[in-house]
Amino acid sequence: MKVYETIVILKPAADMQEIEKKVEEKIEDMVRQKDGKMLNVEKWGIRKLSYPIKKLEEGYYILFNYTTTPESVKEIDRFLRIEENVIRFLTVKIKKEALEKRLNKEDSTVKPATAETPVQKEA
Questions:
Q1: pLDDT for 20-30, tens place per residue?
Q2: Is residue 117, in this structure, part of any structural domain at all?
Q3: Which residues contact 67 (CB under 8 A, 6 or more apart)?
Q4: Which domain holds residue 55?
Q5: This model's pTM is above 0.85
């Protein structure tokens, strides 16, 4: 099975948690139907778009990393095209090593503050 990465931009709405949950569950179901596996889900939250899309200035970003078959990716793309709350999406095939490197890098960059860490005061 190959490793894929899908980024989805959703319309910001009052019931954002419900919409986000629906999209996330649907993608997870499609991946698991073909014996795939969800590797990572990152919710980036609402961000300003670099240019208006469908007259919207902001979008809610979600990043999915998963392993599955190419047929399953086609089904996911079809679902995202039909889903009315999706502004844009992009699915790419990535190398497993690149994903592992990125995930390890993220883990190592987040270090908890300790008592030995000096705190700089603003002048």
A1: 999 999 999 99
A2: no
A3: 1, 2, 3, 4, 31, 36, 37, 39
A4: 12-87
A5: no
